[in-house]
Specification:
The protein is α+β, with helices and mostly antiparallel strands and 491 residues long. The chain has 3 domains: 19-213 and 280-305, no CATH class; 314-425, no CATH class; 433-490, Arc Repressor Mutant, subunit A, CATH 1.10.10.410. Helix content is 40%, strand content 19%. The protein has helices at residues 6-14, 65-77, 178-195, 235-254, 300-307, 314-325, 329-335, 339-351, 355-373, 384-395, 401-414, 418-425, 433-446, 448-455, 462-472, 479-490, and strands spanning 15-26, 81-82, 85-86, 88-92, 102-106, 112-120, 126-138, 142-144, 156-158, 165-171, 207-217, 227-232, 262-267, 272-278, 288-289, 296-297. The protein has a 9-stranded mixed β-sheet. Strand 13 (262-267) and strand 14 (272-278) form a beta hairpin. Helix 3 (178-195) runs antiparallel to helix 4. The chain starts with 5 loop residues before the first helix and ends with a helix. The structure holds adenosine-5'-diphosphate (ADP), magnesium ion (MG) and zinc ion. Adenosine-5'-diphosphate binds next to strand 1, strand 10 and strand 11.
Length: 491
């Protein structure tokens, strides 16, 4: 359903879309949320299970403190207010991957509420997307429909995932476009990765997203009927599924129809969504407080202790780095894309003669060459340490920026680090004092006016003389020797 005609473009501007996202994040605890089974991915099916997570009658859940701490940490990073008291509830439904017949979740009293994520919206403006709540819950098992010899007639169940701790993060219906949804997810994942409470690996299912979308005539206050698109397994597909769904809903309304509240599935191969089931309502789940668990108390002291473990978060880091190293927004975003990358840069920046110079080289010498080679910063032949060595050489005047560029070209061609290529190709330096003295004499003799100015107190002229001698030596004069001799001659 491509939008090709002028008419359909007009239609898209007649309506506006409203999007709300529900994101499930698996918490990286050692054990499951209510039992001692290992919380790891990729084990032999049904090997990490026990009576508690298998839902045997009489088995009792015990809440994992680490899971609570991780969920609180994620809440704080997302600007959510943590409730001192929250309540676990049973969400009742039948499904083969849910042996208990209910999922322990949080319902009317979630762990935290009223947060937000700042995103860059259209035209580069900043926009806050509200986060309604973050609640804790256990994951269900996994139905396996493919990959077995009898998959045509049987579905298998792997219960290893049952009881994995999840944080569900629910946004307000405040996202306006599929691009904004993509941006929200990118920022959310980045923040969670910085906190270290989840690896957010979408392939392994440790980050999953349900996208809710409705449309309404532009300017209308009330929300339209929403459709929920379940379990889309990449951010790009979320964006594509939303784009498709907005077009579909627009056509339905234009044809005089009404939108059905329902759950749909996205098929990335076909680029379209399909009805999965008409949407159940909260009362269908017969939520009630979990009788086997006490209310969860996270008092202020505990909240403060957890807050103290929060790292500097991406947005704060970006703003600081822009101020500290004179970076642009885009360059700061590149350098802070992961916490490891930002740390690698900053640990060298601390050692560098000039941190700004290092930032400059990473942006101007590394980034462009990496992009051309389709590489990430982490795969660069020139390491962050190598880049710092080059920055220091440039800062000290030992090499010129022209030679630096050449050395970078060769380092990338030969796939070696900067210090390696520098040792191999470094310009033969002139350290012979007599030879340098001779060049200085010639320069001074040729610039009597400047010498006069220098002697009259304008000592900044030294830079001019250094430049002249460097030029005469084709950049090979040893800068330290040159400086020393110059000062001596001029005084
Ligand atoms: P449900 O009970 O169906 O799960 P919720 O009210 O809990 O619905 O909302 C689930 C998600 O759907 C939230 O992210 C919310 O922002 C979003 N949402 C709710 N109403 C709409 C709507 N009319 N259009 C788009 N998104 C919506
Ligand atoms: Mg929902
Ligand atoms: Zn278990």
């Amino acid at each position: 359903m491509a939008i090709a005609t002028k008419k359909s473009v007009d239609l898209l501007s007649k309506y506006e879309s409203v999007i709300g996202l529900e994101v499930h994040v698996q918490l990286l605890t050692k054990t499951k949320i209510f039992c001692g089974c290992p919380n790891i991915f990729g084990s032999e099916p049904n090997s990490n299970v026990c009576p508690v997570c298998l839902g045997m009658p009489g088995a009792l859940p015990v809440l994992n403190e680490q899971a609570v701490e991780f969920a609180v940490k994620a809440s704080q990073a997302l600007n959510l207010k943590v409730n001192e008291t929250s309540i676990f509830s049973r969400k009742n439904y039948f499904y083969p991957d849910l042996p208990k017949g209910y999922q322990i979740s949080q319902f009317d009293k979630p762990l935290s509420e009223h947060g937000y994520i700042e995103v860059t919206a259209a035209e580069g403006t900043k926009k806050r997307i509200g986060i309604t709540r973050l609640h804790m819950e256990e994951d269900a098992g996994k139905s396996m429909h493919d990959g077995f010899v009898d998959s045509d007639c049987k579905t298998y169940v792997d219960l290893n995932r049952t009881g994995t701790p999840l944080a569900e993060i629910v946004s307000e219906p405040e996202i306006s476009t599929p691009e904004e949804a993509y941006e929200y997810l990118t920022r959310l994942k980045e923040i969670i990765l910085y906190t270290g409470v989840s690896d957010c690996n979408m392939e392994e299912g440790s980050l999953r997203c349900d996208a809710n979308v409705s449309i309404r005539p532009r300017g209308q206050k009330t929300l339209g009927t929403k459709v929920e698109i379940k379990n889309v397994n990449s951010f790009r597909f979320v964006k594509q599924a939303l784009e498709y769904e907005i077009e579909r809903q627009t056509e339905v309304l234009e044809d005089g129809g009404t939108i059905q509240q329902e759950t749909r599935l996205y098929n990335p191969g076909e680029g379209r969504t399909y009805t999965m089931r008409t949407k159940e309502r909260a009362h269908d789940y017969r939520y009630f407080p979990e009788p086997d668990l006490l209310p969860l108390i996270v008092d202020q002291a505990k909240q403060d202790a957890i807050r103290a473990t929060l790292p500097e978060l991406p947005e704060a880091k970006r703003q600081r780095m822009i101020a500290e190293y004179g970076l642009t927004e885009g360059d700061a975003a590149m350098l802070t894309a992961t916490r490891a990358r930002a740390d690698a840069f900053e640990s060298e920046a601390k050692k560098a003669k000039s941190a700004k110079r290092l930032a400059n080289i990473v942006i101007s010498e590394l980034q462009g060459r990496l992009k051309a080679a389709g590489l990430e910063l982490e795969d660069s032949p020139v390491t962050m340490e190598g880049a710092r060595v080059s920055a220091d050489l440039l800062e000290a005047g030992t090499i010129s920026s022209k030679i630096l560029k050449e050395l970078y070209d060769h380092a990338f061609e030969q796939k070696v680090d900067f210090p390696v290529i520098y040792e191999k190709e470094k310009p033969q330096q002139i350290t012979d004092t007599a030879e340098i003295e001779k060049m200085i004499d010639e320069v001074l003799a040729a610039s009597p006016k400047q010498v006069e100015q220098y002697r009259a107190g304008k000592t900044t002229m030294i830079g001019f003389f250094v430049g002249q001698v460097m030029k005469a030596s084709k950049g090979k004069a040893n800068p330290a020797v040159l400086n020393e001799l110059l000062v001596k001659k001029l005084s």
